[in-house]
Amino acid sequence: MVRLALTGGPWDCHTHIYGPWDAFPLPATAAYRPAAAPMTELLAMHERLGIGHGVLVQAACYQSDHSALLAALAATDGRYRGVALIDETMDDADLRSLHDGGVRGVRFNFMGHLPGERDLDRLRSVAERVRPLGWHALLHGQLAQVLPVLDAWRDLDMPLVIDHMARQDATREWDEPALKRLERHLAHPQRWLKLSGVDRAMQGAPAPWPAALPLARRLLAAARQRAIWGTDWPHPNIQGPVPDDGQLLDFLVEVCGDAATAQAVLVDNPKRLYF
């Protein structure tokens, strides 16, 4: 694993936690039932990699019950932030409580295997509600699903973060017109990119993923000052073996190519987005 000399602690901007089940059980209607992956295990992984900050993304299987996420954030002395799942039952007091607990974004899921609202007008109303709090909206979907959202919300004055490199398949020929559309959107000063999910982009192939470097580097070049990174620990709903998080970090460092870019992606950019 590459050791980095960075100013300030690196950020892992995409993780999930599950359990412990005796304290935070899943609802009967959970979309999926993962193995337990409590905060203690995440912190141990981060310590091993030298990661000082993290972002907990609310797991879809917990729906809008953020108890596990908020309890984990409360135990980190402000070093970790959260991204929530918001539904129509949550009022402004609920949003303020999430914000006070460390949440700084809302995730919109467009992937077919995950539940969630798909109507763009309703989702925009949610985005407008959280915008005064300084939150961002995390868009999780394939490129063909994300582009219409970016088109429809071109005038939305808040950070929109493209999750997992827009879930592109790096094992196939790129959709060049669609990729150019994404690059044009990423030129907007409020549009961000998460350089995560390379194992998913490589359809479960094992590290070191050299075939994904051209795509990741091209996306990074489109938003160098608005790119962030995450492991996606503990890697729910994946194809193939669970990737090694140290190798995921190594891949990101190789994508960056130099210390200044790694400093931006791993430290400076996430600090601007999450604080």
Number of strands: 8
Overall shape:
globular
The secondary-structure class comes to: alpha/beta
By CATH reckoning, the class would read Alpha Beta
What do these coordinates show?
- Pfam families: Amidohydro_2.
- This is Amidohydrolase family protein.
- The protein is α/β, with parallel strands linked by helices and about 280 residues long.
- It has a single domain, classed as Alpha-Beta Barrel (TIM Barrel), CATH 3.20.20.140.
- Helices cover about 35% and strands about 15% of the residues.
- It has an eight-stranded parallel β-sheet with strand order 1-2-3-4-5-6-7-8, with helices on both faces.
- Strand 2, helix 2 and strand 3 form a beta-alpha-beta unit.
- Helix 8 crosses helix 9 (about 245-255).
- The model has no long low-confidence stretch (mean pLDDT about 95).
Question: What labels describe this entry?
Answer:
eight-stranded parallel sheet; alpha/beta; 275 residues; TIM Barrel
Summarize the structure.
The chain is α/β, with parallel strands linked by helices and 275 residues long.
Task: Set down the secondary structure blueprint.
Layout: E1 11-15, H1 39-49, E2 53-57, H2 67-74, E3 80-84, H3 92-100, E4 103-109, H4 120-130, E5 136-140, H5 143-152, E6 160-162, H6 176-186, E7 191-194, H7 198-201, H8 213-222, E8 227-228, H9 245-256, H10 259-274
Parallel strand pairs: 1-2, 2-3, 3-4, 4-5, 5-6, 6-7, 7-8
Helix pairs in contact: 5-6, 8-9
Organism: Massilia cellulosiltytica
Protein name: Amidohydrolase family protein
InterPro entries: Amidohydro-rel, Aro_Compnd_Degr_Hydrolases, Metal_Hydrolase
